[in-house]
Amino acid sequence: MIRKLPAVLGVGVLGLGLAACSDTPPPASDREPIGVDYSEGEPAADSSEEWTLGTTDAITSVDPAGAYDIGSWNLQYQMFQQLMTVPANGSEPEPDAAECAYDDPKTITCTLQDGLMFANGNELTSSDVKYSLERNIAINDPNGSAILLGSIMDDPASPNPKLAPGAVETPNDTTVVFNLSKPDTTFLKVLSTATASIVDEQVYPANKELADTDEHSGSGPYMLTQYKEGQQAVFELNESYGGPHPGIAPRVFVSFHKDDTSLTSAVKTGEVDVAWRSMSPTQQKALADDDIAVLKGQGSEFRYWVWDMNNGAGTDDAVRQAVAQVIDRDQIATNAYDGTVEPAYSIVPPGFGGQKDSFAEEYGDPDADAAEKILSDAGVETPVALKLGYPQEHYGPNAVDEATEIAEQLNATDLFDVTAEAGEWEQYQTDYKKSAYDLFMLGWYPDFLDADNYLSPFVVDGGFFANGYSNPEVNELVDAELGETDEGTRDETIGQIQDIVAQDVPLIPTWNGANVAAVGDGVGGVQDTLDPTYVFRFWMITKS
Amino acid sequence: MSSSRGSLPRYIAIRLLLIIPMMWVLLTFVFFLLRIAPGDPVTAAAGGKLSAEEIARRQAALGLDRPLLTQYLDYLGDVVRFQFGNALSDGTPVTSLIRDHGGATLTLTVGAFLFAVAVGVPLGRWAGRHRDTAIDAPIRILGIVVYAAPIFWVGILLIIAVDNVLPSWPTSGIASPTAIYEIPTRTHILLVDAVLSGDYVLDVLQHHVLPCLVLGMLLSGVIIRLVRINVIQSMQADYVEAARARGIAERKVVRDHAFRNALVPVVTVIGLQVALTLSGAVLTENTFNWPGLGTDLVDYVLARDYVAVQGLVTFFALVVVVVSVVVDVINALIDPRVRY
Question: How would you classify residue A166: left for phi > 0, otherwise alpha for psi between -120 and 50, otherwise beta?
Fold first, then answer.
């Protein structure tokens, strides 16, 4: 996101009305947004020419042990297999390199497909699977995602964690058994993420990452044949791929762009065939105006406001509830995002098992009178002074509009005296932990597609942002849903958690984003891969 | 009696020794400035995602919890040994960055210099010869405007204009993806590699036009003003008057006497524009998605990647200092008075 300073300065200082880039992918619903005419997209063909994907995502590492970001993971999904995979627009993992199933909430058994090979010709066995996970944990890169493998670590809090003894067993070349340290019904989904990518133990060092410029060898549908940092990556078909989704295009280029101005320019000139992540509403509109097809799929980005419950006005239940009663999410979506985002009424986005719009059920339509009653019943003196915090650039220019919109909505009731204050991202993170704001903005992309990824990090003992919220009942319910294998029971528990959160209001959800791509002529299959996983499946894309 | 005070070797030795305190001050400034700025590589990358405990653990893993003085002394020790380390945010060795991306910055700056000289010298000469006329005024204004206009602003406007007028003309990147893939790497300078391979030369040149033009405009502003003022001064010199008195044609007087002599100080000053060019390259590269060291620098600053920023700044500083010394030495060779 970053990496966008000059463009942002140019737009901000000179007021040209051009949108600088944003790391916010747009809309999430079927509702027709204002200004952007989303297209349907062409179906994929049986054969394909080579094509180019343009993106603003930065790459931290090509090695699966070194990355925990969408850009890096997206490259890894093309070149490595995982045991399981979440199919496009699906929610449950399906077999990829293996077929896996829970024996009980603490045990998973996987059986590898026959004849799996790495692109270099080496055989892929259960030993490679265990080695890949053990290595990821041992390297424990500060930029990596080993933290997701906590259920098979000896001591997740240790600075030097290791694979727990007996956590991964390989009784034969095609069987892998996971013995989890605690009931964890999300672990199968973790195994479908890039953090569980299977690497060749004869190529990848045990205790350090392979340099990005070295020869990487996976068993995925494509092989990485060139990587020039900050410029491009080139993939070619892996002829020895033996998984469920072989690629079609013989070669795929990935062109890295610093901002969405450069990216949209490249798709207009035809230098990239697909522009994906992250285009501001303004840029989407500009592309649509130029007759470039802008496609939209469901996303999983989530924007929310966190109450500081350690100090200040946020310690009062009535104040938090009254604010939740007043906020008009439709107006935020319309006025701040040109209708390119979808109002959120739960901390779990639509599409996840157990999701329910608890905030809508609890508070109904925005209602200043109801808010006034909440405050007067609790004996709160009005107007309540509130300080809103938001990052100046981190979430793109529209975040400023969102903060302004919320402040105006609250001030319009005369129940609140709100000031909104921007912070530079680094300073902002320090400030909100020091109770500089009563209510502060944050955003989230899920690590894996499960409702729990929107619950555990947020509502258990203050969440990762340590906002002071703690409800033993919520903690127990989260533990219960994590250990529950019956889908119906688990969904019910997840619903209960959302209901309690809507009553307690430790945070306020505002909107869910979408997965958007701009597509040049003759490119098919893009629409089908735009889903909440943000995996851009090269194997589904064709160009004629 | 001869004195060593004004000798050239002594002058060069002093200039070289001065590099050490200059670099030390600069590196110390950069080191502490980065530490004073809020944030660190871990919070920049994952601050909105991880708990405070996990962030602290990752900071410790990178050694960011060590005493500042320890980190500083380690850093200086590495610099003395020319070890720039690996970027904290992505693990890339800084030397690899310089090798792989330095070529792009080099071609950009050289291209900009060529453009600036090609435009700035004749315009400056023309304006100087026609001082305070209808020719001079617009050129003077042009010189000031192109120097003062922010590069990223000019760049964005140019991209928009070219998108509308020549929709197929490339406005970002150093070459098309296919060209980057197909051109074999020999020198790490894509244009040179393209010429050596004989393929995609036009493709690469097309991509160079806009960035070189934008950065070159900045430099041409300086050159126009310098050439103009030196031509004006030369035109008033005695030797020019003498040439005129000998009946030499005015055009020949300007070309062979005034202009040639006016170029001597200009060449020196142009050499000292390296720092300006590099700072301009940072903005130009970001505007045009140019894969050079300037782009890297901005990325790593925003990622709070201390190691990468320190390494790149050290490299930039070395380039500026070395060029400055070379210019000083050339100057001393041309004009012995500067040695004293």
Answer: left
B160-216 pLDDT per residue, tens: 899 889 988 999 899 999 999 999 999 999 999 999 999 999 999 999 999 999 999
Q: Is the minimum CB–CB distance between A378 and chain B shorter than 8 Å?
A: no
ipTM of the complex: 0.78
DSSP state string for B265-316: HHHHHHHTTHHHHHHHHHHHHHHTT--SHHHHHHHHHHTT-HHHHHHHHHHH
A:B CB pairs within 8 Å? 172
Asked if A478 contacts A341 with a C-beta cutoff of 8 angstroms, the reply is no
A3 has a pLDDT exceeding 50 = no
Query: Could you tell me which chain B residue has the CA closest to the CA of A432?
Result: B48
Which residues are within 8 A (CB) of A362 and not within 5 positions of it... i.e. 6 or more apart?
Answer: A324, A499, A502, A503
Is the peptide bond prior to A171 cis by the omega test (within 30 degrees of 0)?
no
Subunit contact B156:A3, Cβ cutoff 8 A: no
Q: How far apart are CA A161 and CA A423, in angstroms?
A: 35
pLDDT number for residue A13: 31
A253 vs B177: CB contact, 8 Å cut-off? yes
Q: Give B51's Cβ-side CA count (13 Å radius).
A: 16
- B39–A429 CB contact, under 8 Å: yes
Instruction: Produce one character per residue of A16-27: b if its CB has 16 or more CB atoms within 10 Å, e if not.
Output: eebbbbbbbbbb
Q: What is the spatial distance between Cα A332 and Cα A406, in angstroms, rounded to a whole number?
A: 7
Model's pTM, two decimal places? 0.84
pLDDT tens string B243-280 = 888 888 888 888 888 888 787 777 777 777 877 888 88
pLDDT at A6: 35
Note whether A157 contacts B: Cβ–Cβ < 8 A: yes
Q: How far is A495 from chain B (nearest CA, A)?
A: 23
Q: Quote the minimal CA–CA distance from A212 to chain B in Å.
A: 8
**Contact present, A28 and A521 (Cβ < 8 Å):** no
Closest in A230, A266, A444 to B296, CB measured: A230
Cα A100 from Cα A86, distance rounded (Å): 13
Distance CA A104, CA A183 (A): 8
Residue contact A230–B60, C-beta within 8 A: no
CA distance B248 to chain A (A): 52
A1 touches chain B (CB under 8 A): yes
- List, as one string, the DSSP characters of B66-82: S-HHHHHHHHHHHHHTT
Nearest CA distance, B234 vs chain A (angstrom): 41
Angstrom distance (rounded) from CA B239 to CA B121: 22
Across the interface, of B37, B57, B173, the residue whose CB is closest to A159 is B57
